[in-house]
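ARCHIVE CARD
Drawer: 12
Card no.: 0347
Subject: one protein chain, sequence and derived structure
Cross-reference: see card 0346
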Amino acid sequence: MNTDKSKGVKTRSRRRSVQLNVTSWLAIFLFLQPVAAFAYLDPTTGSMIISAIVGLLASLVLAIKTYWYRLKSLFKAKPVESDKKDDGI
């Protein structure tokens, strides 16, 4: 048996794993670097962002509430109708 080939495969696999790990950390590091944005945000922009967030949250709550009641009604026991009619006699 030739064990040199199996050692070479393990070494290449480990090397590729290390390269992928280094590349991943390098990409994360580069994406987290601050970039100068020469922009001015006035108070109106902040208010607009806050109102957009509040509107998004309100719509999410409404959607969850709607689907929650629909899901709840699927599992709710339906009343059984009796065959007898109560005429009071």
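Annotation on reverse: Residues 49 and 55 are 10 Å apart (CA to CA). The longest helix spans residues 43-75.
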